[in-house]
Predict the structure.
Amino acid sequence: MTRGPTLPAHRLPHLPQPLDAFNTASADEARTLLLRCLHSVCWAHRIADHRPFPDLDALLAAADEAAYDLAPGDLAEALAGESLPQLPEGAYSAAHTALSAAHAAYEARFGHAFVIYLGDVPADEVIDRVLEAIRSRLTNDPEEERVVTAEELRRLARGRLAAFLGGAGRCATSPNAPVHGP
């Protein structure tokens, strides 16, 4: 049995992809969006100034590279925009108290907010992971912690940028938080 001619494939209209929109946005728009993800003017400018990016991996590599070159003041600016990771709904008040106390000790020792990337941690393990990490990192000397903190900021930036350019359209406004509106 022979088949008749087939119909041409139906093509969906081309919708702009988030990376395409980012690449073609004005420099000011790109920097504003990046600033919401990165919390550092210098970091945002460095990435925006290297557009267009051929793909998401290239943009994430550029964000990593730019982070390695940030001055201490730029890192301090990025850290100033951070806050504690959000605890899952229903977390006991004792968990909030323990986290607040651990974070206060961390800030007293290092002079900035504790940051940690939790993108791959199941929600039911977030509290334990954050408390464990703060307690562990409190034993670091300041230089060692500066290196760890910079790496966690890079991981947070990668997660936020991937979420933004992966179609969510917005950057998270606090670490490990769900993506929020403008």
User: Anything to note?
Assistant: The chain has one domain: 18-168.
